[in-house]
User: Fold these one by one.
Assistant:
Number 1:
Amino acid sequence: MPVTARSFAKINLGLRIGASRSDGFHELRTVYQTIALHDIIRVTVMRGTGIEIRCEDPRVPKGEANTCYRVVERAMAALRARGRVIVEIEKRLPVQGGLGGASGNAVAVLLALDAALNTQLSGTERLRIAAEVGSDLPLFLLGGTVLGVGRGEEGSTACVVALPEVGVSTPKAFGDWDLLIAGQSLSSKQRIAGRGPAWRGAGAPPQTRRGTPARSKLTVADPSDRMTVLGREFSAWLSSASGVPVGKGRGRAETQLLDLVRTGIENDFEQVVFPKYPELREVKSMLQRAGAFYASLSGSGSATYGLFASRSIAEKAVARLKKAGVAAVVTRTLTRREYWKKILD
């Protein structure tokens, strides 16, 4: 008999891309937030051997490239279990949408497999398997609001997720980001170098009040510096979130999210994705014009979301988006408690 699980989506509340690491990945800083949109996962264990992935969406890989396949492979080995595992994926979330569909699917499979085998991997083993398979997977072992570094209890907030018919490749987006940063660094160095001969040919360089040469302001911020600044902003938000009094007429969740928005968080991917897909920039603008107190690309996109003060305002925003030909749905953020209550319910 199959075990059914919900595979919830996530959005990114701000995202900063750091330097490329020795393992080929980039350092990231972001706040993950699970939302109520989800895929459906069914896991069946029967006699035999092997792993079979079933999904009607042709874009979902059926072999070892699928995160669910890799999770099952590792979990069966860790449990020293035998049997043929069949994973059925009912896709409701967009592929390459930036909502963490593949990662959420894999964690849902891990939990459903445990239930199907009537076993329970330790928290440490689950985390190890998740981290080996993908950078986003550990998030889905927590749920709710999660600070993502390297590769509390909160309330619910109305959320609109716009789903443009565009597929954005995350590896390509990272590559475009690297090219952008490299180009800015080269341009800055060329401009700074170009000032040298001018100074030598036209007298002394500009002087500060103390008589020392003025420093150029054209240098690009070091990636590690950018990560440090955002880390401090997140730390300040986390420190204040635990003790901020709830304003009159506002819930705790809205207060915390507004505090986070006030830090000026942005998604770095927008700098390279929006120029290539200007329709996504327009979707974000539409969400803002419809009353979102925060709107952003989720991950590398193409899903774009807005956070709203109430469900009624969010529903009006969806109506405006649909009138403009953009698919969109109203959902809400999920607390950690709700996430775990619903995932295998």
Number 2:
Amino acid sequence: MSPRVLRIGTRASALALWQARHVEALVRSQPGSPATELVHIRTAGDAQREVPLWQAEGRAFFTREIDAALTAGTIDVAVHSLKDLPTELAAGVSLVATLKREDPRDALLSRSGAPLGELMQGARIGTSSLRRRAFIAHARPDVVALELRGNVPTRIERLRRGDYDAIILAAAGVTRLGLSEHITQYLPADAFPPAVSQGVIGICARADDSATGTWLSALDDRCARLASSAERALLARLQGGCQVPLGALAELRGDTLHLAAAVCALDGSRELRAQGSHSAAQAPLTVDAAVALGERIADELIASGAAQLIAQQREALAVAAP
């Protein structure tokens, strides 16, 4: 039997609330669905807004407290930006649904309206992502990357008041909040591979809560599930996180799943790439096949020196951190 009220845990940022309300609407659109309630939860990532994410201790900065509430039974559903969710889930937690993916690319927002290649020499670009810093340095070694934290509207306001010449955000978040008119350029995924699972909303529930799982599993999108499974498997194999300048994008084209990934040095001086595919003509295109594809591409990156490059970047960050 489904619970009388389905309690949906979420962060309280504008984007997180949009995602939680979207999930709530999808659940309530199903015949006979239970009543729902949004529960706001403050995470470590919300509390440490002045600390760069790469300097923060541990992982799961934006999901840990929500999943803890889930396992404790104070909420029934956890809604996450899947890119924030660690590849190793908390004990007793299951990723029940992955919603249809929004645009996975990064977006450049500039004050002048100039795309990345036409920004002035030494332009100040705001981002909280080491991945974006690395690929920016590779494409435009002359620009200056500056730390940028806060929710999407706050970041855009800081750009408008002149703190930065440009900022880079996930296109999905900007679009979902109805702010896409501020986007100057969608950065091509081949040159700027996005974060793993960027643009996908992940919905978790307790693994033993089959009643809640029934309402959520109906929301699972096959394309998003296959793509995110491949990308997350690659990330897990490389033991990555937000402290690693790694980007990846899997796409389902017809009956073939393609995956491309890249690791880049923080100063942009070295870049390693690998790509591959799995066709349903060879073997059924299942989640296990997607995971195997992700692990295979990770192994190719490791063979080309990615493990050493990642270790070097982590060591450099440890020295740089206060």
Number 3:
Amino acid sequence: MRLTSILVVAFRALRRNKLRSILTALGIIMGVGAVIAIVSLGNGATAIVEAQVASLGQNILTVYPGATTQGGGGARGQQGGTSSLTAEDAAAIAAEIEHIDGVSPEINSRAQVIANGLNWNTQIRGESPDYDRIRNWAIPQGAMFSEADVNSLATVAVIGKTVADQLFPNENPVGQSLRIRNLPFKIVGVLAAKGFSPNGQQDQDDIVIIPHTSLQSRLARQANIFSILIAVDSSKNIDRVKQAVTDLLTQRRQGREPDFTVRDQIELAQLQNDSTSTLRLLVLIIAAVSLLVGGIGIMNIMLVSVTERTREIGIRLAVGAHGADVLLQFLIEAVLLSLMGGTLGVLAGVGASGAVHQYLGWPVAISTVWIAGAFGFSAFVGIAFGFFPAWKASQLDPIEALRFE
């Protein structure tokens, strides 16, 4: 039989049982669709992490509160729990460690700020004068507060563009005052607009930055800081500085168990990507099982088809068709069934990714390589699971086939 004739017969056989063909391909559709959707979401999440790390500035280390031992039972808290970090730790790092471009002790809060008869709830960050340089954040209006402001617990502030627009529409905020918890702060600078964070969940310009000492003593009444931000002068010195910071802080604790963690941007990105990758792997395993089930479904239906068409096979063999023609006939039907499932699965995966992006705002990055791979794998499933039924059909005895009822 010519290939065109085989294809025509294959299409006709699948069209004859439309519902059965679609149900058979359902496993392939679900598996391929899940692969495309999960990979697209995973790629989008990875892109977000990379963008977030880039937005923090270059060659950054961050010191976080580490595990602490609490109570007589020795229970240990998680990273980011009770903080023992102090501004003195940050000062020691700046004074004693080489290859550092800036250090900023950090403490965060939220508060309602009032100015011009308007109010706005925003993030309050206590930082050092190095913060804008560490974060590579320009100040087009005014300037950053000084080290003298930090030492004197000055009530000065640098505000983000969103806060400026909300409280001082069509005005220059520099030199004016705003109140934070009934305490007046003079605005000395306005940060350049950065827009939303790469994941679209946080407005980076919705911020008020004040000296960390002022936030600690005047507003938060808190002795310790939340974290320490460190800028390293070169990427080649990151590991060296990281080890030096760890050694210095360990020494300052005078033999106590280290209760801090020093992380660089690569580690932060890796931690987030690891959690995303674990979830992605789980779903890909489920998708692979779905493809396997789909392949078994194709084998089952093709075996049923061979049984239903035994007399047809016998007639073809009797009028001169070869076993290879019959094998090719059923193998092409299985591949077409699998490719149909692969095509619908790709459309379903792309559609699901688009829907998630549209309605949930999650980023997606559709990979043409994975689309081609999923489509090719669906064809492989058709060949792998369709071969046995096709071979069984080609081995039928024409006389016995003609006698089949």
